[in-house]
Amino acid sequence: MKAALICLFILCSVFHNAQRYSSAEIDSLLEWKHYELRISGRHKEAINLNKQLLMESKKMKYTKGEVWAYINLGNLYCTLGENEKSIYCLQLAESIEIDDDFLKSLIYTEYGRNYNILRLIDKSNENYDQSIRLAKRIKDNNKRRRLLGYSYASKADNFEGTKMQDSLFFYLKKAYENGKGPITAARISGCFSFRNSIDSAEFYLKEANKLFNSGVTPSLYNKSILLLNQGILLSAKKDYRRALESYEKSLTIMEKLKKQDGRKSLYKLISDTHKLLNNREKSNEYLEKYSSLKDSLDIVERKLIEVSVDKFINKKEKENNENKNKLYIIITSILLLFVFSFFLGCWKFKKNNLQKETLLQQKEDIINQKEEETVELKQRMDTVFGEIASLAKQNDPLFLYRFQEVYPDFCNKLLEINPKLVNSELHLCAMTRLNFSSKDIAKYTFVQYKTVEMRKYRLRKKLGISADENFYMFMKNL
Fold it and tell me: How far, in Å, are 229, 246, 252 from residue 243 at the CA level?
């Protein structure tokens, strides 16, 4: 009896270890446990958890779990500044077919965060816009609002520290409307402080503190952002000493979390505050720290951009070579077919030389066949053109790739003129080549008409197109 119980215990243990989680448990861990570990700064634990859940999902053939785990790993690696690893994980997630707008939207948001770090802002905005479009289709109200809040708040980062403060404020407000979080409220407070709207700034800072204190798992990073924006508010109220105290507390947390960008911003704020307090020595000390860290981050950023651009160029070269090989095969096949048809025609001509009427009939048949082939070829080209135009109207990411398949030399010639052209500029040139007006381009790419005209103006400079030359004819004749 005792031996039987021991065997039963062993069998139960084996069964338990063979499948530790159900799909619902995996979803819960991927969503909430990952979130808890991430906001508490326990990134290594979060990475190990997601790798474990990835393996479990693969064993179970649970596709959703695999995709979600890859996205979470992409999120964590991006947070840690390991952008190559992050983008690789996102590509793996994207390669798995899944009908889930929530996860698809998350993929684009994480791509947007990576491109923000690489300072490819246009590409970052494109991915955030796609993420927001997908998020709006989510039926679950809580998930939709939470994801929209995350996407809008992330997109706001693209306007931080720029002259486009209205855009920063707009996207922070959109984020706050969809998901009230302490960081978003604190950042809105900071925007009002810079505008000297003290009452509004105080209101949102109080809201930020309430949200922080009501959180299940208080985040050190959230606390540092609250302190930073509290300092900005105190500085706007000219209470520089208390502002300095808030900045220094925030800096302590940023240093503990190894947040380089946060440290850089705080060094500058602390330097400026010491200057206002007439403490030149301290002001210069923190200004020197700011300059040193900025130079260091700029070097890292340039390296990341170089790696990203090199990979993009290599990928395009590979695609171009593949397209050329396909074209050579098609041309060779056509030539062989033509040669075969020619000799066959000669043989028939010699054989039926005495039968002129039959020969004339055969020629007429051949002409009709060629006409039908021409009509069919034209119909195919019309279909291909319609497909590409449809992709452009949907602002589909596949548009440029499909365009290059059909017009392989167009982008090559543009890159020969200026190798520094980016993807978004090639996209604009392609739409112009397809006879889309500036108004249509603005409509289908979700930007302002003036933005399109400004981009064309910049392209004129980059491509050496004179003011007298028609931009459309230049692209048409390329």
Answer: 9, 5, 14
**Helices of type H across 352-422:** 356-393, 398-406, 408-417
Is the Cα torsion angle 278, 281, 282, 284 positive or negative in sign? positive
Please indicate, yes or no, whether residues 367 and 266 belong to a single structural domain of this protein: no
- How many domains in the chain? 2
Residue 157 CA to residue 265 CA, distance in Å, equals 14
Q: For residue 209, which amino acid is it?
A: N
Q: What is the arithmetic mean of pLDDT over 225-248?
A: 90
Burial 366-386 (b: 16+ CB within 10 A, else e): eeeeeeeeeeeeeeeeeeeee
Residue at which a domain ends, from 270, 296, 322 = 296
Is 81 a member of any domain? no
CB 34 within 8 A of CB 49: yes
Average pLDDT, the chain: 82
Between CA 69 and CA 26 the distance in angstroms is 9
Domain span at residue 203? Answer: 180-296
Residue 471's contacts (CB-CB under 8 Å, 6 or more residues apart) are 432, 456, 459, 460, 465
407 Rama sector, left if φ>0, alpha if ψ -120 to 50, beta otherwise: beta
The angle at the Cα of 294, spanning 291 to 295, to the nearest 5 degrees, equals 85
Angstrom distance (rounded) from CA 113 to CA 423: 18
Give the integer Cα–Cα distance in Å for 252 and 250. Answer: 5
Tell me the two tokens of residue 155: 């997109």
Does residue 190 share a domain with residue 282? yes
42-48 own/partner pairs: CB under 8 Å, 24+ apart: 43/76, 43/79, 43/80, 46/72, 46/76, 47/73, 47/76, 47/77
Q: Report the percentage of the chain scoring pLDDT > 90.
A: 34
- My answer on whether 359 and 291 are in the same domain is no
pLDDT one-digit tens code per residue, 125-170:
999 999 999 999 999 998 899 889 888 888 888 888 777 888 888 9
- Let me know whether 376 and 271 are in one domain: no
Q: Does the pLDDT of residue 8 top 50, yes or no? A: no
Residue type, 411: C
Amino acid at the residue 377: L
- Distance CA(460)–CA(455), nearest Å, equals 9
Token pair of 336, please?
């062989």
Report the alpha-carbon distance of residue 344 to residue 358 in Å, rounded.
16
Residue type, 402: R
71/61 Cα distance (integer angstroms)? 17
- The answer to whether residue 410 sits within a structural domain is yes
Tens of pLDDT, residues 347-401 = 777 776 666 666 666 666 665 565 555 455 455 556 777 888 888 899 888 888 8
What pLDDT was estimated at residue 330?
Answer: 83
Structural domain contains residue 126: no
